[in-house]
Structure formats: C-alpha cells, structure tokens
Amino acid sequence: MSAETITSSEYIRHHLTNLTFGRHADGHWGFASTDTIEEMGFWAIHVDTMFWSLLLGALFVFLFSRAAKSATVGVPSGMQNFVEWIVEFINDSVRGSFSGKNDLVAPLAMTIFVWIFLMNLMDLVPVDVIPTLAQMVGIHYMKVVATTDPNATFGMAIGIFILTLYYSIKIKGIGGFMGELTLQPFEAKNPLLKLLFIPINFLLEFVSLIARPISLSLRLFGNMYAGEMIFILIAIMYSTGIGMGLFAGGLQFVWAVFHILIITLQAFIFMTLTIVYMDMAHNEH
Fold first, then answer.
1. What confidence tens digit (pLDDT) does each residue in 12-63 have?
2. Where exactly are the structural domains of the chain?
C-alpha cells in the first residue's frame, strides 16, 4: 500500500489489521472490512495469523525431521550441525531448570523455542513486501507476524497453563494441588487460625496462578507488537523525502540488527518460563 495515497494513520491502521473471517451482522459469513471487524465478535478468525503460524510450524517440522532422517555419524551437514546445536541447547536448558522426570518437557521446549523464533523472525521481512503481494491477488489485509496477535500468544500460553494444571493434579493429586492453593504462604498450627488463612492463601495463590498465562502471553505480544510498530513508523519515513529516507534506511538496519536479539530473547524467555512452570507442577511442597 502506497503511503502517498493515504494518511500515516491509515497506513498504520492497515498494517496492524488482521485478515478476519467471521459472521457479519446480517448473518452471512465472510471476510471483514475495517468497519465490520468488531461486529463479528468472539468467533471471528484471524486467517493470516492461522496461516503463518501453521505454515511456519510445518516448516519447523519439515526441516527438523529431514535433518533427523539424513543424520549421519560421519561428517555432518550444515543443517545437521544446526539442529544438533539446537537440541543440545534445549537439553541443557531443560536439565538446568527442570528437576522432575517427564519425556514431554524437552520436545515441548524445543517446539516452543523454534516455532516462536520463526514467527518472530517474520518481523524482519520489510513491512510492505508481503501485504503488497497479497493485494495483488485481492487480499486487502495481511499481517505476517503471528506473535503480534494476542490471540496467538494467549492461545500458546493457555495451552501451557492447561498442561501445568494437568500435571499438578496428576503428580500431587487434587488434595495436594488444592493444599498448595490454600495452605501457603501463611501457615499456622492453630486450627482456627489455619482456617482463617485458607481464603487469604487461596486469593494470593489463585492470582499468582492466573497471572502465569497472562504475563506469558502479554510479554511476548507486547515486545513483538512494539517492534512491528517501530518498523512501520520507519517505513513511513521513506515517503517524507530523500534525506529522511536515507536516515530511515540506516535506522532500519540498526533496528533490524537489534531486533534479532529481541526475537531470540522472547522465544527463549517463553521457553524458559514454560520449563519453570512445568517444574513447579512436578514439585511437591
């Protein structure tokens, strides 16, 4: 979309709008325009988020499975070296943060790290390239960074939250899990005082429990959304003149290099917190 034919606010709004499919107010199903997104309500689907997240997830599975099938004990290929490095890195992270025994944790951690990294990496694609190509085939909106959509980050965080609840109950039992929510941090030997502390403990622990998926999702969403916004603002600078365009080019390069650290760090933090939460689910007090 050319910044010369629209205002800056319209340009920003366009690049931050998801390709949404849902039910319109008159009852028919279809893709939304800018004015009809809100009327679709909760059951609307962000098609671009689904497409890019599933595509990158399939790319991760394809590349890593191909490297595993072609692995050799001889001189390894570059792809095999890279995959082995990722596996060793994840293995060291799990060993350092997870003290229980669960064969699911390491594959889960690797999937989270690589998948989120690939989704974050799409933020380095110039902001106008894919949306412009999409417009050529009649697709008006196209956000390519799935992690800038809170639906995606909340979906992953809720999935981790459900896993931690499942293993907390499986390892500790319902009584043990409820005991963690009601009998700490305030403790007392007096039965009456102990009974008094139960609702206080439950309130504190429940808030702490619910805060995990919220903080996990919002941290990733907030950092990636801010990074995308900066790239969009830099793109607007190209339309203001040659001098500002040259400055924007240098600024874009510097921010892109710095953003490589951000996208990697955000994937690592999400993975590490997942391991920590799974470790907490397996530990009995």
1. 888 888 999 988 888 888 888 777 777 787 788 999 999 999 999 999 999 9
2. 49-282
Choice among 93, 120, 217, 223 that is catalytic: 223
Where residue 219 falls among pLDDT bands split at 50, 70, 90? very high
| Contact (Cβ atoms closer than 8 angstroms) between residue 120 and residue 266 | yes
Element (H, E) at 3: none
pLDDT of the residue at 50 = 95
Radius of gyration of the chain (CA): 23
Consecutive H or E run containing 31: strand 29-31
E strand or H helix at 21, and its extent? strand 20-23
206-245 in b/e form (b: 16+ CB < 10 A) is eeebeebbeebbebbbebbbebbebbbbbbbbbeeeeeee
DSSP 124-163: GS-TTHHHHHHHHTT-------GGGSHHHHHHHHHHHHHH
pLDDT of residue 211: 93
**pLDDT at 71 exceeding the cut of 90:** no
Residue 227 has pLDDT above 50, yes or no: yes
Q: Which of the following is catalytic: 70, 77, 208, 215?
A: 215
Task: Give the span between the Cα atoms of 213 and 156, in whole angstroms.
Answer: 9
Taking Cα atoms as reference points, which of 195, 263, 197 lies closest to residue 227? 263
pLDDT, residue 36, reads: 74
Q: Which residue has the higher pLDDT, 147 or 42?
A: 147
| Residue 285: its H or E element | none
223 is catalytic: yes
Query: Cα–Cα distances in Å, from 257 out to 37, 230, 247, 250, 264?
Result: 35, 13, 16, 11, 12
* From 102, 151, 219, 239, the catalytic residue: 219
